[in-house]
Amino acid sequence: MVSKNEYEVLANFRYELRKFLRFSEREAKKKGLAAQQYLALLAIEGFPGKRRVSIGELAERLQIAPHSTVGLVDRLESAKLVARVYSIEDRRRVYVQLTTKGRQQLEALTAAHRHELQTAGPLLTKLLKRVVYPKASTG
User: Fold this and answer.
1) Are residues 96 and 41 in contact, defined by beta-carbon separation less than 8 angstroms?
2) Considering only 1-10, 32-41, 118-127, 129-138, which range has the smallest mean pLDDT?
3) Cα 111 to Cα 24, 55, 82, distances in angstroms
4) For residue 78, how many other CB atoms are within 10 A of its CB?
5) Which of 27, 53, 86, 116 is the most exposed place for a label (fewest CB within 10 A)?
6) pLDDT tens digit string along 101-133?
7) Residue 72 burial (10 A CB sphere; 0-12, 13-18, 19+)
């Protein structure tokens, strides 16, 4: 059975996480980006072992449909934040990578997020431990 305290901890964790996500949305908007656009830039540059990703890989990272990803990439490309790169081996395969402008936007947003996480991070970590290990935190 889940205790009242466990519900409170879980609700508080969700609240603090949402506050950080809302901060992220506001910071992106200040830079003229939709939250999803910022997340796409981060997903591309932060993809493990690569500096360019396929539409399918980006869709998976963003947890959105591939056709929605194409529209998102279209808007990012129009803003000159990303560029499409065609595979030399297979011209049907298209990759997406950040442009210099996109990398600069991402760097500015990353600095703001890092600063915010210096405050929010320890509290989120503490709450997450209490969510994952509820019995250990009651004693």
Assistant:
1) no
2) 129-138
3) 11, 27, 20
4) 9
5) 86
6) 999 999 999 999 999 999 999 999 999 999 899
7) buried
